[in-house]
């Protein structure tokens, strides 16, 4: 390891590494670019679900790739007059795709609707066609008459609008937050440029490598994948950079040669960074077991991103820093002979001394606080209604709500039955289901028929979900009859999300526990660390629920939010514990378990706190997108990371370690042999290790 770090920090090697890495990465980004994806109608559907089977069977129908939009005409006061209806029909007739579809007037006379086919194969084309429909139907309407467009195509178009330029906005917001926090952390007008530049290049390269990896393995990804990938690369990459630079600054206080200082800092940091990266990658790869294709893609893409981020921080950043002298830390330039963090009376050393004075009290109070925060879990409602999925209500949702006032609630988005059975028998069976307002065959070809069944209950309600269950039960005796549509998809997604949590949660914990056991070669320490991370997750979810309901007014927690929050929090939360305990283990070799933990806290307290605040802020940036699920994931992770950084890693873990003493590292010996201690002392002053047995 010493030979590798010495070479990275050697003058001409450092210059070559920086030039080749940065130029090569940008060359790949500009020449290759991100892979293009081909969207499928089943990308967002659970694998093996009834709704996925329906859409796969529907592909056998001609022009099955299209969707529908529903134009809702309404009058604020009074009913639609004959002249109003004539003008409305004229508007609809100008839509090339309408095909002479009749305009239906509601029984109360205040609204009318027209169903318009939207023949498009992807989200972009759908958005363009829906935009044309909206422009046409809203032109030259009679006074008091308004037109809005809803239906599956309009919802897809509004969702596409959410992600239009989203990755760019997320990248700019994330980079800005990271830059600001780096300036505040280092209080230097120069130093922050190096980690931001290195991590920024790593992010762009990660996007290219991740998408091509997904394409090579035929793994699906969606519009949010690259945005979340950027957030993770910037968050994790900057955390690793903070750890490296903090150790480099500390070593400069005891070494006159900056290259020797960086070589030692890199050796001491690489184990923690590599262990952290491996743990995060293992956690992310468990998402490959999800039933959701896009979730699998997110897990694999983010795993690639973490590998790229760690590689750039361990190879490119050290080389970039040692090219320049100590002045890059200006105005707080570390000088040889200054006291190291572990030997000073810093804030974190004083915190450690307080923890050591009353460890059992600290443990009790901290656990009570976490338990109180976690109590909010008992009140959580899951499953967002379609109308609650956007932070700002789009036209498609507003139109759907207006339509439900005058027509059966499911008119804009009926349940879609796709079958190879007799369509008349399917229609009759559907009409016999309580909660179905009507059913009709809308398409039939090549032995496959599509039947639309209008659900009376409001979209997203428990009654609508039960109607879907009853409808599927009524069709069990009819061969190859599957139910899709928004309500059916929501039901399948809720059930698949529950299954994913049951499978992935324990697997993540088991794999992270195994990784920590191999890293620390201990049994007790990994159990303690994993237990504290789980406590942090439960507390963050409980506390976030009160934030959602009392501050943001969210009605429910999205079904997918707990899974993503758990995987990211467990993987990233263990990161900070790894940073702490690896340094504590190093210090324990010379100072014993108790003092080793306190010195480890003193040495890493500042950098881990800075890293945690930065990571929390980066995930909070997900709120720039007007999707409730991303805002919820961002808030839970933000709260969890702050809890882990400021409470669990600062108070709870050190207190437990102080109480357990040497047992914390069991069965590993906390103290090395005399020759190992001598080797460490020689390495600290740059001498060659001993060859004594």
TrEMBL record:
Stretches the record annotates as Disordered: 672-693
InterPro entries the UniProt entry points to: MMPL_dom, Mycobact_MmpL, SSD
Tagged with keyword Transmembrane: yes
Gene3D superfamilies: Multidrug efflux transporter AcrB transmembrane domain (1.20.1640.10)
Membrane topology, from the record: Multi-pass membrane protein
Subcellular location: Cell membrane
The organism's place on the tree of life at top rank: Bacteria
Entry's transmembrane regions: 159-184, 191-214, 226-245, 272-292, 298-324, 362-380, 502-520, 527-548, 560-580, 601-627, 633-660
Keyword terms: Cell membrane, Membrane, Transmembrane, Transmembrane helix
Residue span, SSD domain: 205-323, 530-658
SUPFAM superfamilies: Multidrug efflux transporter AcrB transmembrane domain
Similarity comment text for this entry: Belongs to the resistance-nodulation-cell division (RND) (TC 2.A.6) family. MmpL subfamily.
Protein name in the entry: MMPL family transporter
Record organism: Terrabacter ginsenosidimutans
